[in-house]
User: Fold this.
Amino acid sequence: MMRHGLLIVALATLPWPALAQNEPFRVVNGTSLPATALHVVRSGQDGWGANLLTRGSLAPGAVLSMRPPESAGCTFDIRLLLEGGREAIRRDADVCQERSIVVSAAPVPAVAAPAPRPPGGDAIAPARPDGARD
Assistant:
């Protein structure tokens, strides 16, 4: 009984991230497209490393559970490569605080940028119904 009490006291003195670093977390495909590749690296690391989707694609809304190594820390950059070549990236995801990490695609602008005008201000004017010219 004394051993259990010492274990509880020892665990209580550890900082929260130290306890949470090796706990599993979930990556959720929050896009509308299947993901063909998943990359998870410590935040700030160069490169994306190996594809972690070893059993096929990750459907929209699907979840993949992962367990980081004990020494990996809490903060990760997560990348989904989507069908069609787009990517969805979530940077600095704290898996110790947030156990379900939703990775969504960046929003696409609703309005396209206007086409550039020809040099000199010459623009094609719409035709007048009577065929007259200005």
